[in-house]
Amino acid sequence: MGTTATFTIGELSRRTGLPVKTIRFYSDEGLLPPTERTDAGYRLYDAAAMARLELVRTLRELGLGLADVSAALSQSATVGELAVRHVEALDEQIRRLRLRRAVLRAVAKRNSELEEVNLMNRLASMSDEERKRLVDEFWDEMVAGLDIDQEFYRRMRSCKPELPDDPSPEQLEAWIEFAELIQDPDFRALIRGMSETQAQQIEDGEFQQPAEAWRENWTAWIARAQEAVDAGENPTSPMGQTLAAEVAAACARPDQDATSDSYRRELADRFASGGDARSERYWQLLAAINGWPPVPTTQPAVGFMIAALRG
Question: pLDDT tens digits, residue range 25-34?
């Protein structure tokens, strides 16, 4: 036996505070080879081994696995290289934990059943590509076999959910609701029906003029209608009827009488069919997911215009 001070596993345990079982495990795994052995075969460790044990403990507390600790001790990989790899692993763990938290929050809000919990977890765990593909498949089905306004639908499908690398719980919850919405049979039937209506209008030559009028004037019409709502105006008031007359005149084709009650009721029906709250919710959720400015509701304003046209 050498003259350098050595310690048994029990003494090493008392000096470091680590359990004997843990030290023996590290030694058996080759992370802490004994300095020497007694004649009876008991392992002994010197001060250098104690320092090595402290390093092993530090690396393990930082979350490194046994293989990475061994690589660091053997210098086949630097501690810096291992730290980079470990940070990447921790980032992925954090991302997954946040996903789980978002799912659990949504479950708590909805008091979800078990099947819905499984679905929500799958939706939250999707990759960016899977999210985009889900939206592409939705719009593919909405326009399949229809002659529609290609530019309009190109704009619709170009807006994709883009969760950031570190999404907020609200963004994750918005994505879960968005994914559920575009998979909901009733919502899909609604949007498909709107697409079929547009295709029929194009075939009948009834699409171009109203569509152009809406694109050019919709924002201004909504603002004026909301102003009327905020002022407590009735749709049959002069303010409401002036707006209705302007909307009808802008949307009417040359062969239509913009002042007739039947035409205005028909136009009101078009507004109603395209003004479903679920369509608006689609864009509100997309804005929340992508960090865009919030999309305020236009439902009261649209309702005012519809009532004004019918009034």
Answer: 999 999 999 9
